[in-house]
Amino acid sequence: MERVNHPDAQRPQGAAASAPAIELRAINKSFGPVHANRDIDLSVQKGTVHGIVGENGAGKSTLMSILYGFYTADSGDILVNGKTVSISNSSDALSLGIGMVHQHFMLVDNFTVLENVVLGAEGSALLGRSLSKARSELQRLARDYGLEVSPDTLIEDLSVGQQQRVEILKALYRGADILILDEPTGVLTPAEADHLFRVLATLRNEGKTIILITHKLREIMAITDAVSVMRQGRMVATVPTSETSPEALAELMVGRRVLLRVDKDEARPGDVKLAVENLTVADDAGVIRVKGVSFSVRAGEIVGIAGVAGNGQSELLEAIAGMRRPVAGRVIVNGHEVTTHGEAGAAELRQKGLAHVPEDRLRMGLVTNFEAWENSILGYQDEPRYGGGLALDIGASRREFEGRIAQYDIRPANPRLKTANFSGGNQQKIVLAREMERDPDILIVGQPTRGVDIGAIEFIHNQIVKMRDAGKAILLVSVELDEIRSLSDRILVIFDGEIVGEADPASADEGELGLLMAGVHNKEAAQ
Amino acid sequence: MSARVPLPAWVDRILLPVLNVSLAFLIGGIVVLLVGQNPLEAVQIMLYGAFGYGDGFGYTLYYTTNFIFAGLAVSLAYHAGLFNIGAEGQGYIAGLGVILVALWLNGTHWALMMPLMLVAGALFGAFWAFIPGYLQAKRGSHVVITTILFNFIATSLMSYLISRVLKPAGVSADESARIEAVTRVPQLREFIPFFGYSPVNLTFPLAIAALFGVWFLIWRTKFGYAVRALGFNPTAAHYAGISNARLIMITMALSGGLAGLVALNEVAGVQGRLILNFMAGAGFVGIAVAFMGRAHPIGVALAALLFGALYQGGQELAFSMPAITRDMIVTIQALVILFTGAMGEMLRPPLERIFARRAPAVARPAE
Amino acid sequence: MTYVDLILVLDSTVRLATPLIFACLAGLYSERAGIVDIGLEGKLLGAAFGAAVVAAITGSAWAGLFAGVGVSLCMSAIHGFASINLRGNQIISGVALNFLAAGLATFLGQSWFGRGGNTPQLPSGARIPTITLPFANEVQDVPYIGYFYYELISGHSILSYIAFLIVPITAFVLFRTRFGLRLRAVGENPKALDTAGISVTLLRYQALAITGILVGIGGAYLSIAQSAGFTNNMSAGRGYIALAALIFAKWRPWPALATCLLFGFLDALQFRLQGVALPGIGQVPTQAIQALPYVLTIILLAGFIGRAVAPKAAGTPYVKER
Q1: Do C150 and C83 touch, CB atoms closer than 8 A?
Q2: Distances (CA, A) of A2 to A6, A190, A514, B328, C189
Q3: Does one domain contain both A146 and A295?
Q4: Which keywords, in A-to-Z order, does the entry hold (chain B) (predicted)?
């Protein structure tokens, strides 16, 4: 599906002849033993959209942070418009006309749009004048680029898409000619992403240079003029987008053919193990994020929930796992209605046979200051096998974990190493081992491969399928559509807290799913 | 960035704290020099005063008793991610519990009374810490601020109770009636003459037992596991089915109970009556002890002994070198909190450089 | 209570509220910038000591004021180094500074003057003068208004007038200037400021410097304006009261003034009510009034009367790396 109509490239003539907007020569950056960027060369032509792709941890963000003055390179040269420059902080970058839209917005929530835009670029010591000047400038920018947003609204009252507009406006207000966008569509609905791409196309046509960091190949193909691929800290290729394909880029990113499909047999669904009925859940601020959702998961099947991040998935998972008290509705686990959600509800659900691999393992699934074996009992610490009464049986806990180290190939094989010192993939294996080895009837899994290296992804996917084949009911939530499609036996699409459609992974096409994820229902789409 | 080369365990756990404490003493020594006194001579006098003879050593252990309880109170809460600045007030209120039971059954033998007074003190201290714990758990009010405020409220409340309610007729000083000798916690000198006239009493072995108890509680029980999970990562604790609110309230109550045992030592062991401000800052010393001891009972024991020696040695010093008052000890205490607590990481980067150079094999990235 | 009594209570309210206003606004700058400062108490004490010592030695109140501010600035610098550069725990640093001031002031005072930690009595020339406003003496006999002007409006220390002046200035700086915008931003989301090319470190140090200056004046007021010399522990918890007032005022300047006046009033009332039996209530223990500011703050913190939401980044060191 081509989400953006690629406007015929009306690039300024002779752009290639003039000096590149950005040129990086032999950039190196290490953090202790980690060599994040090795001898990076990059050349970005003026008036183009230049994509940078790579897996998590490939060094994209580090490189851009160097360009934006967040880090300084250990060695190498940066040239802006043909001149060698030194960028030691963000204000250097800003004064060179480099603006950045960060993945996590750098906005002050209880400030107005206007205050956020002028922050750091106020002009005069008194606010009154700078604000009124900014107000008219903002109106001009909004008109020129289609970036309408009310200047006096507080940031906390804006949608994510609107907040991103404020970030772009901030950069433009500072006179940025070169705009870096770091994973800009991760939090956007497809409709919002489309709008963003139209804005980017307009900016490019106005002569701005745009660097787009993403790991979504579709976006690269849709919007960029050239693309650079990073892998393990190195720049492995730079090609014109018209001369490459998603498959070729994927291979460059990973270094070998990717197993996009998981080998699995036909599912043999059994009884309903998990049923959710009219579940309504609010977030911490009391906003209803899940709106009367109903579905069920049977033994021996994987039900995948697809959707753009922030459409209620987190709240749904937490409510099912007993961590969040629903506003209304029921969760039926293994035939038991679970009514006592709340403070210690997670413990009760575990006893009923539900295991939970949380979305954000560092925030939720692990205590990174604990030794690995301590995390291997997290959530199960009260079970009698780890000691009777008050006492904790350290020996039994460690022995059990040592067995799992071998089985799940957790490296390094040291149960007493602090969990923070394991890689993302190995941390995820610690969580998976813990949750899967209890032989639960129901497994709910959130973002199983987020921040996990490619080798571990295959392993994790295979483990999940193995659980299914062993007759477990599995609920999978992921924002990676490819992951949902390759693992699930049934796909549910969530949008704005509602299940807006169900699809068969074998027959569903991506366009159809995309429309569902954008909140456009089947019937409307057909019109 | 987390990818720095970590320090060897012994450097992290022993050398770094020792260097931090040394820095505190070094600066203390410079202050002493600045007022024209000889810091080495001062140290010598203090060491003799604290350890050189039975009475002195007994006094050292008496102070140490208070500081162990207060240090454990702060440490236990700290493991749950709670900073209890209120040990001072909790101990003070606990004094009320101790004296009420003692005066109620005044004249009963100590063997019966000591457990009763202990429980009463612990319960009163626990209560005074439970309220901030409750407010933190259920209402989200920060425990740091509320415990500070509760210290002041305790001061006002106790000053009212002692001067208006507990003071017997015909007594001029603001203090309660006296506990009879048979009811008071017996002095160690009754069993070990070595301690001379010092007030170290049976509460001291109790403090040693508390060290073991807290160690066991934190590292060998499921409760301690939950407390540490909560302290490191409350979200993960919630995920693990731990009731954070309940745990915060229980931990604060236990912390206050430990602080309350200072009152057992002071009221039932030493003073034999309830006097104004008997805590004399012991609750605050507990903060220094906890940080210096890195909230580990072994560290707490050593730090409490150090401060016990400083307090006792400081008394002696004030006699021999009148220019160096007890306030110098408060200064040292402040410096210890500063260098082991707030600035505890100051020496880490240079140490990491030194040890990274010494062990280059460890530093090389695994390709 | 007669009219004269009322005016006298209000008069001492102003006197007692002055150091609270300085300390509270000082804390406001620091906490709005994201640095929690429970070391206000120690800074008050340290500044009071520094001011009294220098005023005693030089005989100049202004030199004393300068020294008091200097001491407080030094303590702010230590707090800044620990919490900004070393990213240490701000609470612990504050606790340490409170003890440092308490210990050092008495220790140095004793070794320099040998009066149990107190400084020598200051002659009136070495104290910050009071101001008699125009016509105050002339109109004092005019019923009500005249006395009100003479006793309550006129006749306070210069520093008291400055304290009241700092409130509108703070409100203006905070909400109408570039510095104020950045200050509020750095306390809410320092990254927003850093990515906008503004130094978080510099801004926080600037805020701490203002904190140091203001609380330093407040401390000097204690020893060389309100009293004639330093006495042991003369801050007597005022730094904590100011902190409570700051929370009570929800980190806003005008409510901060109101709260400091309220707490000052309670303090003044406590002296007035000593031994006085109130109709229907009987004798109110002074301790109850002493504890009232703390109890009120706890009730507020518990969310029973509105909600006190601190600046979002307060207490968290800024770490640039992700």
Answers
A1: no
A2: 9, 11, 11, 76, 38
A3: no
A4: Cell membrane, Membrane, Transmembrane, Transmembrane helix
**Domain-terminating residue out of A254, A283, A298:** A254
Dump pLDDT digits (tens) for C130-158: 888 888 888 888 888 888 887 888 889 99
Q: ipTM for the complex?
A: 0.91
pLDDT tens string B192-226: 999 988 999 999 999 999 999 999 999 999 999 99
Q: What is the pLDDT of residues A169-222, one digit of tens each?
A: 999 999 999 999 988 887 777 678 888 999 999 999 999 999 999 877 778 888
Tell me the domain boundaries of chain B.
Answer: 55-325
Min Cα–Cα distance to chain A from C50, Å: 34
* Whether C197 and A93 lie within 8 Å, measured CB to CB: yes
The CATH number of whichever domain residue C245 belongs to comes to 1.10.3470
Per DSSP (E only), the strands in A70-161 are 75-80, 83-85, 98-101
Count of the separate structural domains present in chain C:
1
- Taking CA atoms, B318 is separated from B43, B309, B310, C114, in Å, by 12, 14, 12, 13
Q: Please answer whether residues B143 and B84 qualify as being in contact, where contact means their C-beta atoms are separated by less than 8 angstroms.
A: yes
| In a domain? residue C159 | yes
Å between B214 CA and nearest CA of chain C: 23
CB contact under 8 A, B222 and A378: no
**Is pLDDT larger for residue C102 or for residue A268?**
C102
For residue A524, what pLDDT is reported?
A: 46
Any domain includes A15: no
**Residue A99 touches partner B, C-beta closer than 8 Å:** no
**What is the model's pTM?**
0.87
> What is the extent of the structural domain holding A522?
272-360+440-526
Angle formed by the axes of helices B327-336 and B282-292, nearest 10°: 40
In three-state secondary structure terms, A155 is helix
B&C contacts, CB < 8 Å: 151
- Per the CB < 8 A criterion, the answer to whether A290 and A497 are in contact is yes
Look up the CATH number of the domain holding residue A290: 3.40.50.300
Instruction: List C-alpha distances in Å: B142 to A168, B253, C296.
Output: 37, 16, 15
B13-30, pLDDT tens digit by residue?
889 989 999 999 999 999
CATH 1.10.3470 assigned to B55-325: yes
Domain co-membership, A234 together with A294: no
CB–CB contact C194 A109 (8 Å): no
